[in-house]
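pasting for the record
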Amino acid sequence: MYAGVVVAYNPEKEEILKNIETYVSDLDVLYIVDNSKKSNEKMFENLNNVKYIANNDNLGISAALNIGARMAIHEGHSWLLTMDQDSSFENKAIFKMKAYIKFANEIGEKLGIVSPFHLTARTEGVHLNGIGYPLLVMTSGNLVNLEAYKEVSGFPEWYFIDCVDFDFCLHLRKKGYEIAQVNTAILQHELGDTVKRKIGKKVFYLDNHNYIRRYYVVRNRHYFYDRYKNDFPGYCKLEKKCTRKEALKVLLFEKDKYRKLSYMYKGYKDYKAGLVGRIDSLIKKSDEYV
């Protein structure tokens, strides 16, 4: 019933195996979809209930997730755990998420995603209980209802990376699905190279994304705004404003600032030109991406 997919990209053996050990036993099968240019199959040869898929190229996070989801559907699974290679669960987290799915089914709740609480540098020291219903959640650690997945045609691959998770969540919500967060199910999640800075009483979090990642964030954020501004106007306006705030943080605090800012501008220009896909093989946005 429960499958999982972890997207790998030039993984460090010790780290990814340690993380996989925190959830693989809770699954019927785990698909390791590898976006590295060379195969890492031997890295996982001692794991049970694992199927390794080498893409031999970086196809992007969304394409890798879709490969795992299609395999899970083909093999008759109902739910899919979606994982980043740098994420791990605390004890009994998936058990708690599964228990909520059972309860939700009994009361007829239309669930699209069950999420854990993401413990990151930004949420350190935060402790929540019960069930929350966030507007959207990050991909890693989620149990995705594969019937809902099919209804929204999966993860949008033309983003390549960034905004993939947010787009998926809002698309589910437009179809009437709920996103539930089990706050006592804890996922340890590394969110880039986040650094906390304080100036006076003001606290800043610096993601320190590289210049290529900055490009995708800006470009995709504008497409995301266009797609959902009418249905979720408040959130979309806040998301779009983040670009200016992040540009200021880069200018004031981050290294390699000139290249990062220039690629942020390139991301905006490519959005205006209607270009999507991977940065080194862009294509023109078609009507299917609207």
